[in-house]
């Protein structure tokens, strides 16, 4: 198992949509952790190019993440929302995109990864059926599945997953939930430590903990709770190897409240609050990836103009603690801090 071979219990979150680069993944893996390449939003050919580029940079294992496609949205579900946000697009000097459904080149990417298997393939937005998991396993890849509830963890375990990535509600970016259910929004979802304990109790699988982990002390906390490794995303957004737009890096560096929203993509995600999020979250439909394509030109205009109020500023709740640190240096620092934190915690337990 890959987790047994890591020198550092640090996993780089996939970070689809821009921050993910071959250089970032390679730097984390070369430092002893496990770097991931995001396959989301890419064609199969583009993903193949990124895998090849990462392999040129490191001989260490690298994982690849895919989005599991969900069902199409009901016809016309985005029309009212498009009318609502048209003024924002006009103000930004652009037009809205064409809302549409696609499966993110699911079959082509599976064929790529089966033919040229990476050490790990992880999944977000759902659990592949056992046949897909079996095919990837037979090709030589470990299969990791992101879960946000104990029930999802049990489902993934029964489907044949090798490792579970337990994503707490503190995490930045999209929720990895199997179903984007608006009825579940009121609960806020499971926090990481609660989820981690429940997943470990219900399954016998190794678990990687994700959500709100930015410091070595937080890494130590999830390891003490039973996780085999910590997955960090926001902590690496300001690293020089990341492809994060400057307007996003600047927002991550500053104090700022985060909130869950569907306003940018039609799927629940956590980002730093800005004007667009505050004005349109309540009206945004459950319609992914339709809304993603609808708002894409608007978000691109915001990034180009450096306008944080138009950009999906995905970030976890502890984003202000993320530093502008090279990825390998950050991995080394996190491990050292985790060791110190665990030793300090042990010292607080009286001897019998």
Question: What do you see in this structure?
Answer:
The chain is 40% helix and 13% strand. It is of the alpha/beta class and 352 residues long. The strands form two sheets. An eight-stranded parallel sheet has the order 1-9-8-6-5-4-3-2. Strands 7-11-10 form a three-stranded antiparallel sheet, with no helix packed on it. Helix 6 links the parallel strand 4 and strand 5. The chain has two domains: 241 residues, Aldolase class I (TIM Barrel), CATH 3.20.20; 106 residues, no CATH class. The model has no long low-confidence stretch (mean pLDDT 95).
Shape: globular
Oligomer: single chain
Structural class per helix/strand content?
alpha/beta
What ranges have pLDDT less than 50 throughout 5 or more consecutive residues?
A: none
DSSP strand tally? 11
Number of domains: 2
**Percent of residues in beta strands:** 5-15%
What secondary-structure arrangement, pairings included, does this model have?
Elements: H1 2-5, E1 10-12, H2 22-30, E2 35-38, H3 44-57, E3 62-67, H4 79-91, H5 106-115, E4 120-124, H6 130-139, E5 142-147, H7 150-159, E6 163-167, E7 173-174, H8 192-202, E8 207-210, H9 216-224, E9 229-232, H10 246-253, E10 258-261, E11 269-272, H11 275-280, H12 290-305, H13 327-347
Parallel strand pairs: 1-9, 2-3, 3-4, 4-5, 5-6, 6-8, 8-9
Antiparallel strand pairs: 7-11, 10-11
């Amino acid at each position: 198992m890959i987790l047994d071979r890591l020198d550092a219990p640090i996993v780089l979150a996939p970070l689809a949509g821009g921050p993910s680069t071959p250089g970032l993944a390679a730097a984390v893996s070369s430092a002893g952790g496990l770097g991931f390449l995001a396959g989301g939003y890419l064609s199969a050919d583009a993903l193949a190019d990124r895998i090849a580029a990462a392999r040129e940079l490191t001989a260490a294992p690298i994982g690849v993440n895919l989005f599991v496609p969900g069902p199409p949205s009901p016809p016309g579900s985005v029309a009212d929302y498009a009318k609502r946000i048209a003024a924002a697009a006009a103000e930004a000097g652009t037009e809205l995109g064409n809302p549409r459904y696609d499966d993110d080149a699911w079959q082509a990417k599976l064929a790529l990864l089966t033919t040229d298997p990476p050490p790990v393939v992880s999944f977000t937005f759902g659990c592949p059926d056992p046949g897909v998991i079996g095919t990837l396993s037979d090709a030589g890849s470990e299969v990791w599945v992101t879960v946000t509830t104990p029930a999802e963890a049990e489902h993934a375990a029964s489907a044949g997953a090798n490792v579970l990535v337990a994503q707490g509600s503190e995490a930045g970016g999209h929720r990895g939930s199997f179903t984007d259910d608006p009825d579940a929004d009121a609960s806020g979802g499971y926090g990481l430590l609660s989820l981690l304990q429940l997943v470990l109790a219900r399954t016998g699988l190794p678990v990687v903990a994700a959500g709100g982990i930015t410091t070595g002390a937080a890494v130590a906390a999830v390891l003490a709770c039973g996780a085999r490794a910590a997955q960090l995303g926001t902590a690496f957004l300001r690293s020089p190897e990341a492809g994060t737009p400057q307007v996003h890096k600047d927002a991550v560096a500053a104090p700022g409240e985060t909130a869950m929203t569907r306003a940018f993509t039609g799927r629940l995600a956590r980002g730093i609050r800005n004007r667009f999020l505050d004005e349109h979250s309540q009206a945004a439909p459950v319609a992914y990836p339709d809304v993603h394509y609808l708002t894409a030109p608007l978000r691109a205009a915001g990034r180009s103009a450096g306008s944080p109020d138009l950009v999906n500023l995905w970030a976890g709740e502890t984003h202000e603690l993320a530093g502008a640190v090279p990825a390998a240096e950050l991995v080394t620092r996190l491990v050292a801090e985790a060791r110190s934190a665990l030793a300090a915690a042990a010292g607080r337990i009286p001897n019998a």
